[in-house]
Amino acid sequence: MDFAFFNFCTRNGIPIGLFYRDIYWRFANYGKGLNPFKVLMAKAFYWFDLYAYQKTVTKLYLPSLEMGEYVPLVLSDRFAALPPGHDGNAGADDQIGSSGNPSEGQPLRLFYVGGMSSHYQMHKLFNAVSGLPRIQLTICTREGEWKAVQPEYPDLPDNIKVVHEYGDVMQAMLRQCDLALLFVKPQEYWEFAAPVKLYEYLGNHKPIIASAGTLAGRFVESQGVGWAVPYQEGSMRQILKYLLAEPESLEAVRSRCAEVAQEHSWQARARQVIEDLAV
């Protein structure tokens, strides 16, 4: 039914923009543990989708242009980057160090929200933070995902806590932090993945520490909204010690986040689509 409608639009000169969210199925670990016949059928339909998109779609939107290297059949001139956006919900009380300044003996509060799986490995983060008592790390993830990976991680020290909040409670925790994190082990997928949480952090005007060698890290570094750090315990400890010693650098980056955030709201994404598909 979708493709019949797309054909109707194409015949009548109506432009079509379609967002293609991910390309998990092109990676070797897709379908592990599933019925091989079902996996084969699913991949066949994924190929058919792309064949039909090439025939009908005006713009195939991807989270990043880098992902286009993994998308077969569709010509690259159809691709356009359309990463996630944010709601622009940074509140008036969103102040770095609102409960105290790290230079005055207060802890530096780190926050991560998202998955805990083979795609989101953060073992070196846990190890780095555990030796820094003036750092407080909060991991907000689904309870089931944490239970699945918990045996891989050491016993949590006093300065690391794992919570399972969402919605307004999670947003409140994000607003209270000093730094937001995307410090995960770089993998091939992270070379083109544009995580929603990156833009959620930005919308809350939070300086970000991301892993070097990832698309998120390149964005953070190029836009001046945080630091791209090699995925090593020593590198993470070094940047955290620097920020404890130079807390004013956080405020400077936070101001930059507020500027850059204006370009990455959901409204800005909608304006881009309107301009791309204008007839």
Radius of gyration: 21 Å
**What sequence of helices (H) and strands (E) makes up the elements?**
HEHEEEHEHEHEHEHEHHH
How are the strands of the biggest sheet laid out side by side?
6-5-4-7-8-9
Shape: globular
Question: Mind describing the biggest β-sheet?
Answer: 6 strands, parallel
Are there runs of 5+ residues with pLDDT below 50, and where?
A: 91-100
Q: What fraction strand?
A: 5-15%
State mean pLDDT (0 to 100 scale).
93
Helical content, roughly?
Answer: 25-40%
Straight-line distance between termini: 25 Å
- What's the number of extended β-strand segments? 9
Q: Please give the count of helices.
A: 10
SS content category: alpha/beta
Descriptive notes:
It is a single chain. Strand 7 (179-182), helix 6 and strand 8 (208-211) form a beta-alpha-beta unit. The model is unreliable at 91-100 (pLDDT under 50). This protein is α/β, with parallel strands linked by helices. The chain has helices at residues 2-11, 36-56, 123-130, 143-149, 167-176, 196-203, 215-223, 233-245, 248-261, 266-276; strands at residues 17-19, 59-62, 79-81, 108-113, 135-140, 160-163, 179-182, 208-211, 226-229. Strands 6-5-4-7-8-9 form a 6-stranded parallel β-sheet, with helices on both faces. Strands 1-2-3 form a 3-stranded parallel β-sheet, with no helix packed on it. It is globular, with a radius of gyration of 21 Å. The chain contains 10 helices and 9 strands.
